Amino acid sequence: MTVTTPDSAVDLFKTLDELDVPRGYRAEILREAEITVSPPPIGKHQRTVMEMLWQFQSHLPAGYGTEVHLEIRMHHILKSTIPDLFVAPEPALDVEDHFVSPDDVILAAEVVSRSNADNDRVAKLGIYAAAEIPLYLLVDPIKASTTLYFSPEHGHYTENVTAPFGKGVRIPEPFGFKLDTSRFRTYGRTDAATHS
């Protein structure tokens, strides 16, 4: 679902904050003057998110934490996302608000949803690069592949590496480990009519 909103940045974020979103849904600003509301994820999507979370937890740099609910609010480019997982310093996550600055985020990760795959593959790829988030990890259960984007410059990631599920993906420093993708879930034919 998409909500068209006023052009003013103040009005845009005010509308986002006042939107009555059903439990489990996510409201994000992915395109100009629009708020995108996405349905709750399916179980396979969430199991893959948890697999990522468990692996990153044991390889976090000192003083950093993982987050799966807070919003990254990018005032300078009028965008807002709620990643499936992101990593930022603990003090940045310990806020009395529901969003953090992209300046504090060192990695954002998304698991592609069948119902809105282009949001993760295209829209968020551009948003995270424009916000200069150093690493963007895209797990794609439709293509059964994992892509790590890195080295953002001038609004684009200049480098990336892709591996099929089952092959490891090297996550560079400050993490310094190989992500095991063998337990990531793919979406079967029975998932075609469901939202993820």
TrEMBL record:
Source domain of life: Bacteria
Molecular function (Gene Ontology), one example: endonuclease activity
Signal sequence extent: none
Annotated Putative restriction endonuclease domain residues: 16-180
SUPFAM superfamilies: Restriction endonuclease-like (SSF52980)
Keywords linked to the UniProt accession: Endonuclease, Hydrolase, Nuclease
Protein name: Uma2 family endonuclease
Organism: Nocardiopsis suaedae
